[in-house]
Amino acid sequence: MPDFKENAVILIPANKMTEGLFELCSALADFPVLCVDAGGDGLSPLPSNVTVISPDSVKGRGGALAAGLRYIGEGDTYAHCGYVVTAEEGSRAEDIVRLAREARETGGVVLGSRSTAGVSAVRRFGRKFTDLVFRIAAGKAVSDPMTGLCAMPKETAVQLAELPGERFEFEINRLFAVLEDGAAICEIPVGASSGGFRFHPVADTVRLYWSIFLGSRSLKYLFSSGLAFIIDYVLLVAIARLLAFDGAVELVAAPAAWIVSSLTNFFLNRNFVFRSNTPLLVALPEYYGLAGIVFLLKTYVLLELMVRVIGMPLEIAKLVAEVVFFVSNYFIQKKFIFKKKK
Predict the structure, then answer these.
(1) What is the mean pLDDT of residues 200-219?
(2) Pick from 239, 271, 276, 275: which is nearest to 255 by CA?
(3) Residue 220 contacts by C-beta under 8 Å, 6 or more apart in sequence?
(4) Is the C-alpha dihedral spanning 117, 119, 123, 125 positive or negative?
(5) Parallel, antiparallel or unpaired: strands 33-37 and 8-14
(6) Is the CATH number 3.40.309.10 carried by domain 8-215?
(7) Of 45-49, 231-235, 300-304, where does mean pLDDT reach its minimum?
(8) Does pLDDT of 241 surpass 80?
(9) Strands (E), the chain
(10) Which residues of 136-152 are buried (b: 16+ CB within 10 A; e: fewer)?
C-alpha cells in the first residue's frame, strides 16, 4: 500500500465501471479508495490508489457497504487510516475531501446533506417526507438521513458492518446506530449526487420505513404500549360488564386485565423495544415494582376519582389514565429497568 497524504479511506460501492467512477477515484489520489464491485462484472481500469473487492452475494448498496466495512476492519491494509468516508459513484471529490477533513477535526460523524437543486418535485417531496418521519422516529432533526455521503472514525464504522440492510435501508440503520451510541453528528451541505443503484419505489420504500420503525425505540414503545392498552382495556371493560356487581372493577376486572397486559408489555419492551440483556430475574421485579405503583395510582386513585367522584364513564376515564402515565413509564423503563442492551 503506497503512502497517502490523507488518513481516511474512501469506500465506494459500484455496480459497474464508468468514466465518472474513474474520474472520481483519480481526483482522490491523496486517499486510499476501496471500491466494492456490487455488479460482479469487474471494475477496471482504475487508478493505483484504488483497491477493488468483489464479495459474493451482494444484493445492493447496503450489502456492498457492509462488505467494504468488514474488509477495512480486517487485516492491516488500512491500519494507518483513522476515518472512513462512504460515498457514491456520483459524489463530488471536493465534497468527499471536506467530509473527511471535518470528521478528522471534530472526531465525530459527519453527514453530507445533498442539494435538491435540479431534483424533481416528486423526489423532493419524498425526501422531505422521509426527513419528517425520521425526525419523529429518532427525536433528532437530520436534514438528509438517506445521504450516501458519510464520514466517521474507522473504529465506529467497522462496528456497523453487521447491521441489517442489503439495500438503501442500511444508511438508516447506520444512522440509528450512531444516534443510539450517543455519537456527535454534524451536517455539511454538499452537491446533488446519485449512485448506480436503482431505487425501487415500492419495495425499497417499504424496507426503508420498516427500518425506521424498527430503529425507533419510541415508535416501538408506542406499539407495545398500544397493544398492552388494547388488551387491558378490552379485558377490563368485558370482565366488569360480565360480572356487573359493586366493586367488580377494583376486585376482579382491573387486576386480571393488568396481569395479562403487563406481562405482554414486559416481554415486548425487554426483547423488542429496548433489546435489553438485563437478567430476567432482575428486570421482572423492577418492572413489576414500577408497574405495581402505576397500577395502584391508576386504579385506586385516578380511576376512582374520575369514575366515582367526577362521574366520568369508565371507558373514558380509562383512556385518560393511560395517557397520563404513558410518557413517564417510557423514561423510567429506559433509564432504570431495561438499561443494559443486547
Answers:
(1) 91
(2) 239
(3) 213, 214, 272, 273
(4) positive
(5) parallel
(6) no
(7) 300-304
(8) yes
(9) 8-14, 33-37, 50-53, 83-86, 109-114, 150-153, 185-190
(10) ebbeeebebbbbbbbbb
Q: If you average pLDDT over residues 57-81, what whole number do you get?
A: 91
Largest CA distance in the chain: 85
**Exposure b/e, 253-289, CB count within 10 A at least 16 = b:** bbeebbeebbbbbbebbbeebbebebeeeebbebbbe
As beta bridge partners, residue 110 has: 151, 186
Residue 13 backbone dihedrals phi, psi, to 5 degrees:
-75, 140
Q: Which residues make up the CATH 3.90.550.10 domain(s) of the chain?
A: 8-215
How many residues are listed for the chain in this entry? 342
At 30, which helix (H) or strand (E)?
none
Single-letter amino acid code for the residue at 228: A
Q: Are 85 and 73 in contact (CB under 8 A)?
A: no
Quote the distance between the C-alpha of residue 190 and its chain's center. 23
Predicted confidence at residue 12, as pLDDT, reads 96
pLDDT recorded at residue 3: 61
Amino acid code (one letter) for 59: K
Helix (H, G, I), strand (E, B) or coil at 49: coil
Q: How far from chain centre, in Å, is Cα 241?
A: 43
Supply the mean pLDDT for the chain: 88
pTM higher than 0.85, yes or no? no
Query: Please, which pLDDT band fits residue 111 given cuts at 50, 70 and 90?
Result: very high
Question: What is the strand order of the sheet 33-37 is part of?
Answer: 50-53, 33-37, 8-14, 83-86, 150-153, 109-114, 185-190
Terminal alpha carbon distance of the chain: 37
The Cα 311–Cα 95 span in angstroms is: 65
Give which of 94, 115, 75, 77 is closest to 30, Cα–Cα. 94
Q: Is the pLDDT of residue 314 over 90?
A: no
In tens, the pLDDT along 244-294 reads: 777 777 778 888 998 999 899 999 999 999 888 888 999 899 888 887 787
Q: Report CA torsion sign: 64, 70, 71, 73.
A: positive
Please choose, from the candidates 134, 151, 210, 138, the residue with its C-alpha nearest in 3D space to the C-alpha of residue 179: 138
